[in-house]
What does this fold into?
Amino acid sequence: MPKIIIDDTEHDFPDGITLIQACDMAGVEIPRFCYHERLSIAGNCRMCLVEVVGMPKPVASCAMSVNDLRPNRDGTPPTVLTQSATTRKAQEGTLEFLLINHPLDCPICDQGGECDLQDQTMAFGFDAGRYQDNKRAVEDKYLGPLIKTFMTRCIHCTRCVRFMSEVAGVQELGAIGRGEDMEITTYLEHGMHSNLSGNVVDLCPVGALTAKPYAFLARPWELTKTPSIDVMDALGSAIRVDARGREVLRILPRINDAVNEEWISDKARHVWDGLRTQRLDRPYLKRNGKLEPATWDEAFAAIAAKLSALTARSLAAIAGDLAAAEDMYALKELAGGLGSPNVDCRQDGAKLDPSLGRATYLFNTTIGGIEDADAVLFVGTDPRVEAPVLTRAFSVGTSSKGLLPVGLIGTEVDLTYPCEYLGAGPETLAKIADGSHAFAKTLQEAEKPMIVVGPGSACAPDGAAVLALAAKAAKKMGALTGGWNGFNVLHTAAGRVAGLDLGFVPGEGRSRRGGHVRAAGKGDLKVVYLLGADEIDASRLGDAFVIYQGSHGDRGAHRADVILPGAAYTEKDGTYVNTEGRAQMTTRAIFPPGEAREDWTILRALSGVLGRPLPFDSLQELRAKMYAACPHLALLDLVEPADAAAIEKLAGKPAKPGKDRFGLVIEDYYLSNPVARASAIMASLSAMHAGGPEKATGTDG
It folds into this structure.
């Protein structure tokens, strides 16, 4: 381990790190603009110059390795001075050059209060400029409905360019020109199509790239900041919800190295405007074929009157993709108290069965374990859309042979990294399972292969057989050996894993796996309770009495006979379990609008009216009972490994799937849930990706 003296204190550092990393480990802060710990080294800004004793001039600490420093002539370890007059003069001179062309936009810049350039100017700047010539002016670029550009502010740090190529995996940003004429652009000046493009706003240190929807709305010191969890997909990315009063004004990422590092998808970041539009803020009751406002007592009385005239088995409850674990537990207890086994959390018809074992529906490798894999097989999935942040984990994976071998079975899509397209359906998967396919040899030769089963295969009519076949393939390729479990299911619904953990599926002897809609259409079910379930085909519910409990006036509410207004994910404390089985909690950032209430409280109040009061009166009591029924939900931010024996057992089941090709379940990534469909920003992104007018809403300036 190299020994280095930093400001008169000797330290030991691991091999291969840079000087700026060494200084950070030693607790010494070095100013920087272009350097970012998750991106490659560029050495553009020169702000991180430090003095190394014995070297003729200051060195860029981001580009100098600790192993490149030689001991002093007297044999003492190399010495780095971060507070010397030479270092200070170099840093102040660099900052003066960077400010030569920078406009005085601080009073109107949305980066104000969160700007690296502002902070470092306070520490290393000066009160008067010596540059007398005209400042350089650069024409602003159009980067789509999410990013507002002020390219005269750009200092060419290239963080945005490196992020798009190294993390997002697409070459959508680059530089043209040289020297003073250099400009960052998309070349053809079209909107960026990556689902991760909004992260460049966080990376920009000078306000050249800002969030267009957030422009001129607020200053950071006006906002209440609440740590929470994203529910736009099943990854469970760590987010921070910034609100003013009773409105969410922006959503930013939080660092969670185990899940999302510090990136979030564009939908997670910009869906906030949908939280305040098309909201259900009071109960509604259908009278004479028309929904009319009602009181809570009237709505509950209508439900009680309907249920009193029916048998319990005429009731079914379906939970939506955004339902929290507490809400599903309360609904399951209510249905059970009424004597109905007809509950289901798989509104997309996924053939996942929790009775087979938890390992059969989890991403067992874990997100962090992806980097250890040396071969990957995707089955019926498009992770770039279903879990955009995972793009980074798969794209950086390498093996001893170079690039990570990746095979794809299903709809042919662009994964942004090299991929071998193997086939379209179960027949190709069967060849992998019996070892007759050419790619099977690559998987069998890998030390840690993994298979990722997506919703495109699990939601197919023969999904149960496909899952069994995938388990056979995992066993054949050696993905279930030793401490490695390479069988993975990639979910798209934030509430799905918690629902499966709680057993929110039909009881024995009932129509299983999404049969409630069909049963209601046939008249076997008289009452259907939709807990935020908007992705089912409500037109197929026939004459059933529909109770809709949710936050938005979406598809389910349009078919409802009674509407009970619930809370969105930013308005309640709720537990969600991500695709790898990690339990996490959202935190209430604002209160629900109007008469809307948290979902579990609505179910508790309704149970009292129905004469079947639930055995809890507070969130703490509910969670205590939920943890007793499902203990691993109490292990917050931890992944409890599931028993791989369940996959071995699944592999032993007969698997005779059909011949239909695996499709994709997400038709429009930006309009996949009620909150997103209420968002004008998401509508503009959807139009851009569909090739329509990109400036379809007021989010563009």
About this structure: The CA atoms of residues 515 and 540 lie 11 Å apart.
